[in-house]
Amino acid sequence: MLNFRLLAASAAVALGCPLSAATIITQTGSTASFAAPAGGTTINFDDALPGAFTLTTDNAAIVQGTTLNYAEPAASDGSRYLAVMANGTASLQSTTAFDSVSFYLGSIDTYNTVDLLSTTGALIQSFSGSAFGGTADGDQDWPLNNRRVTITRGGGDAAIGGIRFGSTGNSTEVDNVVFAVPEPATWGMMILGFAMVAGAARYRRRSNNAVYG
């Protein structure tokens, strides 16, 4: 189920902010949302990394199961996942350009962080766990705190080349990361949507000038 509050916020971003603002869409935790979406480059931490990617870790590891320091994401299939412990980071980086990245985030906390990176590793935008909905209180079982998160870059942003997960406490748990480029038909719909937003803004300005001019 989509988080309609975040969808509404995304619409507000499109209407009132520069196109460089990234869009976030989340789905509550379930077997379906845990599974990696088709049509992109998938990193599931069970298989070898795709050739274009490197993984750099600091106080982070690919793990399995649940311990005192990390918890298997709710709805997981029991496979391995990435855990970033207190004051650690883990970066997936490539030189390939993508427009969106999707990942399953477990037991979301306010102190979890996600950084969107360009193909050169430069920071595009940062997010805290609270940006992804739910109560972000680290609940290990509640579907609202275990989510599929999809971040799409804004029209003025650099292309996505990587993502960095961090945490100031135990822990950030993530699985089934998917980097993707929209299909041509999707690009067409996005361009049409931006044109409609721009047209509506121009119409409002003309109306305001007529009324208050």
Account of the 3D structure:
- This protein has 213 residues and is of the alpha+beta class.
- It has helices at residues 4-16, 31-34, 184-212; strands at residues 23-28, 41-43, 54-63, 81-98, 100-106, 112-118, 123-128, 147-152, 160-167, 172-180.
- Strands 1, 2, 3, 4, 5, 6, 7, 8, 9 and 10 form a ten-stranded antiparallel beta sheet that branches.
- Strand 6 and strand 7 form a beta hairpin.
- The chain starts with a helix and ends with a helix.
- Reported by name, the CATH topology of the largest domain is Jelly Rolls
The averaged pLDDT comes out at 84
What ranges have pLDDT less than 50 throughout 5 or more consecutive residues?
1-19, 184-192, 203-213
Structural class: alpha+beta
The CATH architecture of the largest domain is: Sandwich
Q: How many domain units?
A: 2
The span between the termini is 46 Å
Q: What composes the largest sheet?
A: 10 strands, antiparallel
Helix content: 10-25%
Find the count of extended strands (DSSP E, 2+ residues).
10
Q: Report the β-strand fraction as a percent range.
A: 35-45%
Categorize the overall geometry: globular
> What's the Cα radius of gyration?
18 Å
Number of helices: 3
The helix/strand series, from N terminus to C terminus, equals HEHEEEEEEEEEH
CATH class of the largest domain: Mainly Beta
Any descriptors?
single chain; 213 residues; alpha+beta; Jelly Rolls; 2 domains; 10-stranded antiparallel sheet
Sum this structure up briefly.
The chain contains 3 helices and 10 strands; from the N terminus they run H-E-H-E-E-E-E-E-E-E-E-E-H. The protein is of the alpha+beta class and 213 residues long.
